[in-house]
Amino acid sequence: MMRVAGGAARGLRLKGAAVAGVRPTTERVRAAIFNILEPGLVDGARVVDLYAGSGSLGIEALSRGAAWADFVERNQRQCRYLQDNLNSTGYADAAGVHCADALRWLERREQPYELALLDPPYRIADLAPTLDALARPGVLSDGAVVVVGHSSRGELPDTRGRLRCYDRRRYGDNAISFYACQSD
Q1: Three-class SS string for 14-35?
Q2: For residue 34, what are the domain limits?
């Protein structure tokens, strides 16, 4: 059983994987991500958690003061677990769960985000299409941050459209890349 690592919901339990192949971000890595992010970035932010799985990253953001989080996960069963996690942590009214393909969903988003969190399955080796979709004008606000969890055996590009990598960290088999969204 996983727990929320910090913020108002710290210590509350989260359901993990409902289906094979879902690899929730560990509590240690989640805590590290939010310790690395600049103070104030999360507070009041609109967040999108793509390839959401259990929703642990987006719930962590809500626990630390995000105003709203959209969770995008294509597996129906996993979406139900994610909704259960939002209900049990008390964040159901500050979130939307979208059972859809991440790339297709990004095409119809309504407002720009200040923070995008991605920890896709490692079998998705090419994240360039997702980074390209995020880099399109209107998806992210200027100065937004994109946090990408990926295998430490793979490297992501330094730049992708408006996105520029400014930090990379490794935690065993996990790697985290941080991108800043620059103005057009």
Answers
A1: ECCCCCCCCCCCCHHHHHHHHH
A2: 2-181
pLDDT of residue 153: 85
Distance in Å from the first CA to the final CA of the chain: 42
30 Cβ partners below 8 Å, 6+ apart?
5, 56, 57, 60
The model carries a pTM of 0.94
For residue 53, what are the contacts with CB-CB under 8 A and spacing of at least 6?
17, 22, 23, 24, 73, 78, 82, 119
Tokens at 49, concatenated:
């958690």
Q: Work out how many domains the chain is built from and give that number.
A: 1
pLDDT in tens, 73-83: 999 999 999 99
The CATH number assigned to the domain holding 125 equals 3.40.50.150
State the residue for tokens 């913020």.
7
